[in-house]
Amino acid sequence: MPDTGLLPDAALQAPACAGRVVVVGLGYVGLPIALEAAAAGFDVTGFDLDPTAAAGAEAAWRGRGAPGRFAATAEAARLPAAETWLICVPTPLDAVGRPDLSMVEAALATCIAGLVPGGLVCLVSTCQPGATNGLCRRAIEAAGFVVGRDAFLAVSPERENPGAAVGPRLVPRLLGAPDPASLARARAFWERIADHLVPVASPEIAECAKLLENTYRLVNIALMDELHRGFAALGVPTRAVVEAAATKPFGFAPFWPGAGAGGHCIPVDPAYLQMELARVGAPSAVLAAAAAANAARPAQILAALEAALGGSVQQRRVLVLGVTYKPEVPDLRGAAPIALLRALAARGARPAWCDPVLGPRHPPELAGLPRAERTAGGWDAVVLGTPHRAFDLAAVPALAPLVLDPFGLLPAGPSVRVV
Asked: Which of 42, 99, 107, 257 is 20 to 30 Å from 220 at the Cα level?
């Protein structure tokens, strides 16, 4: 086995791959994969418990105008028997911060119910190391299949980037399996919808690599948020520092300060890794510090706001510009600006929000938090929550006598405070 953990192509003699595919979960991960598989000639059925997601998937396929076969349903009873099953469901943290694999377990049961002999189950959802060879393998073999003989098992962790115009075909895919036959069977599927496969020597390598990718991002984002305050105290613009450092062609990757990393991956995936590291007696102190710093970022912004307003935000009118977790992406999962809004309300402030990316809807995540009808006039303070392109950043400093900038994007002025 190579020291790199990568397998040479010669080790993968892929058998023929039958054409029926079921994708369980039609969110930001499953839908692009399902559409790409259908465009590649597979007979694809998408499954999502949300009827709106299923209907939206069929509309997306019709809009694509590609040859192929695709249908979607919210009813498990309508799923066909199939040779390939992909699990693309969310793996969030529960109320106390522990990994919640309940949706993966339910998806496994759905897959096994329709799995034909010689079929493949591939885990795409992000899970902790050991999930493929443990949870998934136990469920399949409990149903009477022998993995590697009667049925095949693999993992290819998602690498989606919401808001970026790069689909699953162009992003290199990690691929791991517990045995050579499963790896070859999985490759027979993935090589038809992805241009660059990266086979590795075990499922655990693929699982850990996925977690490392976002742990790396969390640690570096937390570092930049902390240094942002330090550079501001030195009178040096953070973004100019990062841009200068990024001219080095090796050993440096740029990260940018902000209101705190949110979304479905960066605040979540490192917790899966830390859980397993703790289980084997090797938790990461650096990871723990970065996770704590990221979680504390909204409270840090609130503290800076209180200090600038004389020690209290009671009855102060505060506008948060942008509330999604990422610019141009209408996703509120783990969004730091929402945590800031809730903290402001708890402290007796009168917060409001503005976010053009969300359109006219008032999402349930923002229930009880008023939407600003206009951004100009009457605010005691403004906080840049998410720097969408629709905002005229040059005009933001004029919106209030106090403007907080966690990103280092606003032009300097007497009202602007870097936090």
From this structure: 99
